[in-house]
Amino acid sequence: KSWMNSKGVFHEDKRAAVMGAIALFDLIKEENVAPTTELYNVVLGTCLRHGRPPDAPRVYNQMREEGLRPDIYTFVTLMSHCAKHHLLHQAFEIMEHMRQTKLAPSDLLYAALAKVLVNCRQAGSAAKLLDEMRTQGIKPQLETYL
Predict the structure, then answer these.
(1) Which residues of 117-142 are buried (b: 16+ CB within 10 A; e: fewer)?
(2) Which of 81, 89, 94, 139 ranks highest by number of CB atoms within 10 Å?
(3) What is the mean pLDDT of residues 33-56?
């Protein structure tokens, strides 16, 4: 379902956006096209941004079951969702999953984790995180402080 606003811009119903992304994803798989990490990231991000977070773990687990390795964008997407919704425990689970994949954290991931800590009123932990970033040679970017 979509509609046009007063400026002539179309907006799609959030549920329709998620259903469309999942339907496209399923269609690609039916055509025997191997899904990629990037495709999973798009579907995952769509689920999280458009009000379908319960679908995200299924998408993430399916990605891993298919033998695809999550990339830094996968983890930043998940961590950003945790920051927005103050999900401290889930943020630490995401960091653990990332460590298991042996993927080095990036400044963007640290920025998202810092937002989780601040949003969850863990300022002391956020300060320790900044020290950890410096220790690992990762320079905090402006996003880390926003």
Answers:
(1) bbbbebeeebeebbeebeeeebeeee
(2) 94
(3) 81
pLDDT of residue 1: 40
Which residue's structure tokens are 């009000």?
Answer: 51
21-35, 77-91, 120-134: least confidently modelled range:
21-35
| Cα R_g (the chain), whole angstroms | 17
Measured torsion, CA atoms of residues 2, 45, 54, 66, in degrees rounded to the nearest 10: 120
Rounded distance between C-alpha atoms, residue 113 and residue 98, angstroms: 12
Q: Distance between CA 128 and CA 83 in Å, rounded?
A: 17
Contact 17, 55 (CB under 8 A): no
Count of alpha carbons within 13 Å of 51, Cβ hemisphere only? Answer: 7
The model scores a pTM over 0.70:
yes
Q: Using CA atoms, how far apart are residues 119 and 37, in angstroms rounded to an integer?
A: 29
